[in-house]
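Proteins fold reproducibly. Next comes a concrete instance:

***
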Amino acid sequence: MSNTYVEYDASDRIATITLNRPEAANAQNPALLDELDAAWQRAADDPEVRVIVLQANGKHFSAGHDIKAVGAGPSKTTLADIYAFESRRFLEYSLRWRNVPKPSIAAVQGVCISGGLLLCWPCDLIVAADNAVFSDPVVNMGIGGVEYHGHTWELGARKAKELLFTASSLTAAEAERFGMVNRVVPLDELRTAVRELATAIAGKHPFALRQAKRAVNQTLDIQGFYSAVQSVFDIHQTGHGHALSETGVPILMLLDDMKAALAEPKS
């Protein structure tokens, strides 16, 4: 696999997938997402891999979707075009990564904005650096939330509403308190801590790991997770329809909000 935006390494039963677009804060253009999906599938298909680690080079885990690349291209000028594009890369990819039958761990530092949540939420565990900040400010763009609705499941209904209504952010410590993050570690210890956790898990029987993951995911699905994510994706699309009706472009291009969010995160 020829990697431009994603690095891949497998050793000691652990596949490490690394986002490698640090100059753009690992913002997600279509090529990055397609390479990322290919890396996930490579790890899923490798019988030697027992645990998958997702990490990112640079100061930030991910600034979300690269709006210029995915939001207003001339080939995506109707709601049907937007729906097809986002259904594949923003919903199907995330659900597929969630259901890979191997444990996965996300290592998050810096900002994790909107589309960045679509990368870490599908992982089974999240370890955050103490400077990590999580947010979904797309209400500022006239849209009610990012495409993969994990908010309610990750935070509970009232905190999810607060996060969405105010377009505010969560620190790593707050995310841990609400159960969205498993552990918070110093920034300079992030990769070591994740590797140690992955190594401990990789020593377990792969069939038992698969069944344990399947049990938890199926329980969430019985509670309505899968159906909810699918239905909320359609609600998300009405935001694009609203933007198209008002401006003629898929989203309201309030890039200043995203730039402000990329300011140096507080430790």
